[in-house]
Give the backbone structure.
Amino acid sequence: MLLCDLLKGESREQHPVDWHDRALLCAIALCGFRVFRAWLLTNFCVLDGQGEILEEGRVRTTPEGFARRFAAIEPCRMVMEVGTHSRWASKLLADIGHEVIVANPWKVRLIASSIKKTDRSDAETLARLGRIDPKLLSPVIHRGDAAQADLAIIHARESLIASRRLLINHVRGAVKPFGARLPSCDAARRLAVLLHRLWVAGEVYVPLKCEEVAA
């Protein structure tokens, strides 16, 4: 396959595909292939009612790429692993009209314990498991928009707290080689005063008093 075709996410068809009058199942291995750090590409595998591979290929891991590629397929069962992109991808495919199953790969031994771990093989494995019995995939249901937004706020707060702790520890360690020792004061005020000294005034060696921090 030419690189230009790869960047476009062109399919590798096994043979000419007739989408009509067939029971289809499509499995998606979300965003495991990157080209020159520019595009994330998702592998997919399409099976017919007899379990034969109709098509394998890659598509850009974007809402536009998914809509353009999978809107052209008749409504069918879509299987994907849960992950960073599975929330928006499953919603988009469901809005198109597909039946979407989001699998938990950690509970599917054929995927989690596979010795040949590639996105192409994962897509085919998901397709075949989804064709036999969706319950084998331990389906998960994504959170609603409100719950996801609340969770994002919680994670953002945790990141801020962790960043503040790292900065405070860095400043406390930076002044020790100069013989200075920082007292126990309010963390936010202490950090602000010390950062000013380190990177603006350059007065690292000046002892810091709690009265100065409280000012």
User: Anything to note?
Assistant: The chain has eight helices and six strands. The beta strands are 11-13, 25-35, 39-47, 53-60, 77-81, 99-103. The first helix runs from residue 3 to 7.
